[in-house]
User: What shape does this take?
Amino acid sequence: MPARWIDHKGKRILYVDYRGLSPDQVLKQMKESNDIVQAARGKVLYLGNIEDAAVSGDVMGELRQYAERIVRRRFTRLAVVGVTGAREVSLEAFLGMVGRSLVQVRSFATEAEGLDWLAE
Assistant: This one.
């Protein structure tokens, strides 16, 4: 499923579905979401579902660049669903890249919980 804008409780949120994707597919989806964010006006609320998504060294390298180029400058809040196992380590590394004080980032058990937090 491609990245897309959704409305939740009056807020416009970029939803990106990485569920079950291979590293190459994750990288492609990241590029697509990056293009959407670049084309958007103003700050962005973001929900990513990474359940069963594969994380590789290439993915982490691209996340590092994404954090520097896009997330710090354009995101206000970022919610992630599916942070379990090795992805917990990846999220902690990502938080270090982003800088916790610059962007609010939280993980959630369900998309509904993440959407509600983003819309607060």
In short: The beta strands are 4-8, 11-17, 44-49, 75-81, 104-108. The radius of gyration is 13 Å. The longest strand covers residues 11-17. The chain has a mean pLDDT of 86.
